[in-house]
Amino acid sequence: MRNFDYKNPTKILFGKGEIAKLKTEIPEGSKVLMLYGGGSIKKNGIYDQVQKALAGFDCVEFGGIPPNPEYAVLMDALKVIKEENIDYLLAVGGGSVIDGTKFLSSAALYEGDEPWEILDKKIPTLKGMPFGTVLTLPATGSEMNSGAVITRADIKEKRVMGGSGLFPQFSILDPSVVASIPERQIANGLADAYTHVMEQYMTFPIEANLQDRFAESIMQTLIEVAPKIMKDPSNYTDAANFMWSCTMALNGLIQKGVPTDWAIHMMGHELTALYGIDHARTLAIIAGPHYKYSFEKKKEKLAQYAERVWDIREGSVENKAHAGIQKTIDFFHSIGIKTQLSEYTTDFEGTSAEVAKRLKEKGMIALGEHGAITPADAEKIVEMSY
Amino acid sequence: MRNFDYKNPTKILFGKGEIAKLKTEIPEGSKVLMLYGGGSIKKNGIYDQVQKALAGFDCVEFGGIPPNPEYAVLMDALKVIKEENIDYLLAVGGGSVIDGTKFLSSAALYEGDEPWEILDKKIPTLKGMPFGTVLTLPATGSEMNSGAVITRADIKEKRVMGGSGLFPQFSILDPSVVASIPERQIANGLADAYTHVMEQYMTFPIEANLQDRFAESIMQTLIEVAPKIMKDPSNYTDAANFMWSCTMALNGLIQKGVPTDWAIHMMGHELTALYGIDHARTLAIIAGPHYKYSFEKKKEKLAQYAERVWDIREGSVENKAHAGIQKTIDFFHSIGIKTQLSEYTTDFEGTSAEVAKRLKEKGMIALGEHGAITPADAEKIVEMSY
To answer: Which of B142, B267, B105, B134 is nearest to B199 (CA)?
Structure first.
C-alpha cells in the first residue's frame, strides 16, 4: 500500500425530505446565488422545495448551466456574483452544475485578471467561496469531492481543476429525485460511476486489500441495482443504493494508497470535446479497447475483478481477465449504452489521430497507472473503439 | 435505507515516515501536551520520532494513561493543561490514550465544576480543545471518530461520550508501529475491529446494499490478514491492511443509514468493569451467546454473512446462520482469544445477575437494534457465556 493523505470534510445529508434542512446548513445572513441547469428542477418539484427552504435568505438565481459546464456561461454567472455581492453558492443539479459551481467558488476569490488561468495553469484552489449542493442526478460524485471539469467551446477544450478548498460544505442527497430522471441520464449515471471505480481499481495488484474490496463492493452494488433502477426509477430503495454508490465511487476513499489509471477519462474527454457525446458514453466506448490494449499489464487485476465481481471462478488468469472485459462491455449494453464510436457518429475516420494530436498538445504523453500510455498508444486504443 | 447525516473531518496521514509530518499539522506556536500510555513508545522508537517532529514546539508531556482510561488519571492531566496553558493536545497511543485525550479535549473547555458530568449527564461535546493523534495500536477506530469510553475505578463504571467537536484534527497512521505490538494486543485489535463491524451489520436486512458490502469487505480483510499479522507483525503490507481496516471499522461510514446493535459492547463493558478483562476479549465472550440468543431476529443477516464472508453457499437460511456464528467463534479462537467467561475467571457465578443489575441501574433496559434486549435477556446471554 502506498502512503496517502485523506480528508473529506463534506457533510452529507442523505434521505427523503432532507432538502428542507438547507435553511440550517447555509450560514444565517448569507447572500445566496442558486445555480441550476436546464430547468428540469422546475418540473419535478425540486425548485419549489429549495425555494421554500431558502425563504429566509436573500437569494439570487442563475439557471442555464449546460451539460459539460461551459466557461462562457460561467463567466456570466461570475458577473452576477460580483454585482450582487454574493457570499454563498448553492448548486442544485448534477455533476455539471456542481462542477460549474466549483469553478465559480474558485473564480470568485481569484485575484488574477483571467479565471481561465485556474484551469490553464492548473492552479489548485486552497480557498474558495463556500458552497453547498442539492444533488439531482447521481453520477459524477462531484457532490463529495473537490474536483471539477470545465468545458470551453470556443477552443474545444475540457479541463480539470481542483484543490482542498473545493469540497462542498454540505451536499443534500434525496433519492426521491431519481424518480424523475430520464432513462438516458440514469444509464449515464450508472456507467459514469462504474467507470470511476474501474479507473481507481483496474491497475496492478498492490495488496491494498480493503481498497480493492470497497471498489468491488461499489461495482457489485451498481450491477445489482442497475436493472431495477432502469426499470423503475421511482423505487426509493433502489434509488438510494444507486445514489450512495455513485457518491462513494468518487469521493476519494477508494483511490487512497493505490495506483490509479484515468486514461479512459482522458481519451473520453476528447470524444466529448470533438463530438459532444455524453461523458459517460465516451467512457463506455474507450473502456473495452483500453483494457484489451493494456491486457498484459492489467490481467491480474482483471482476473480478480472477474472472480469477485462477476463470480467467474473457473479458468486461467487470462481466461478470467478476458471474461471480465466482456462482462464489462455486456454491462454497458445491458443498460442501453453502445460501446463503439461508430454507433455515435458516422464521422469517425481520423478520430484516433485527432485524439492523439490533442493529447500531445496538452502534454498528456504518459497516461495510465504506469505513465506508459503515449499519444501513439491512445491512437491505437481509440481506433479499436470504432 | 434510513436517512442519515455523515461528516468526518479528520485528516488521515497514512504510511511509513508520516510521523515527521506532525510539525506541519499542529498549528505553529501551539503549546502542546503530548499524552501517552505505559511507556512502550519509549522502547519502540515512536517517542523519539514524535519528539524530533515536535522540536519547534513548546511541549509538555503526560504519560501513564492506563488501558480503559481512568478518570482520576485524566483529572491529573487536566490540571497540567490548565497550569501550563496548553492549547493543543497530541495523543500518542492506542484507543485508550486517544479516548482519554478526547475526554481532556472536552473537559478543558467545559464550564461546569465537575467534568464527570460530561459522562454522567451525556453532554455532547460540540467544541473541544483541538487535538491530533499518532496511532500506535490499530483496534478501536478512535483515531477517526468522535466517541470515547472512559472508566472510573472508584465506582466501577465505564461511560461513553462524544460529539461533533471530538474528531481528531489529524491522525497519523504509520503501519510500521505494528511490528513492536505484543501478540496479545494484535489479537485484541483484530477482535475489537471485527466486532465493531458486526455490531453495525448483524441486525436485520434493510436493503442498504453498499453499507452491507463495505462491512463484509472489512471483515473479509481482517480474516485474510489475521493469521499473517499474528505470525509476523513486521510485515508492512499486512500491517497496513490491518491498520486501515481497524480505522474503517469504526469511523462512522458503515453505520450510516442502517440499524446498529451495540448490545455486545454494553454487556462487554460490564465484564471489563467487573473483572478487568481486556475490552476486545469481553466482546468475543458475548458475541456467540448474543447471536444464538437473538437467532430468530438476526438469522437473515447471519446467513448473508455466512454466505458472503465465509463462502458458505449450501443449506437453508438457518443452517447458514448457525454456521456463521460458529465461524465467528472459530475466528476468535484462531487468533488465540478464548470465548467463555470461565476461561478468564473462576469467580463467574452470579455474573449474569450482576450485569443485569448494573445495566438496569444505568437505564440500559432496551438494548440492540430492536431495543428488545432487556436486563433479563442480558442475564440469560451472559449466563450462556460461562
So the answer is: B267
